[in-house]
Amino acid sequence: MTRRVIQLLIGLPLYGVGDALMIAAGFGLDPWTVFAQGLAVRTGVGIGWITNIVGLLVLLLWIPLRQRPGIGTIANILLVGTAIQGTLAVLPPVHDLLPRILLFVVGLLAVALASGLYIGSRFGAGPRDGLMTGMNARLGWPIWVSRLSVELTVLLVGWLLGGTVGIGTVVFAAGIGPLVHIALPLFDTARAPRMSPAAQPAPETAVDPA
């Protein structure tokens, strides 16, 4: 339990820091952050606070989908946007191309690492991921259809509102899945511990799984 709590409390703020670095890089963002940025442009409210507010509103959509939030869901709403806002407040403006590329790469890697940490803690889905799984369970839509339809919608609306869509959006979409696939097994607290070679049964005594 201690390890799980530590992973959650490190992973969620780290996710916000990574998001902030990609925002500062200015190459384009993931769909939900594009949406939050577009709302921030129109309202004048900080993008981090908008991220928290959007997370809370998405959580309300769980009610008709009969989803139940976990501790991780609530922590996600409170910590990710707050970390974005705090990081952007202390991050100096970056204009040169090479530092911007570096910011984006570091941000993407931080988000992947953070995803492995907080997903691996097994404290419940984030509000946006829970929306996808709820649509799958309640409406019968495949997960990929649920995710694609929702993320394309928020991406389009966010872009129309003034959010940044660009090469970074494409790189994030292509790269985040493989990177989280690498990170998650390192931190998944549900994985069974491996037996040492000395403790493993000899071939002739091993049970046939069939």
Automatic annotation (TrEMBL):
It holds the Pfam family DUF6198. InterPro entries: YczE/YyaS-like. It comes from the Bacteria. Keywords: Membrane, Transmembrane, Transmembrane helix. The chain crosses the membrane at residues 46-65, 77-95, 101-120, 141-161, 167-187. This is Membrane protein YczE. The lineage of its organism: Bacteria, Bacillati, Actinomycetota, Actinomycetes, Micrococcales.
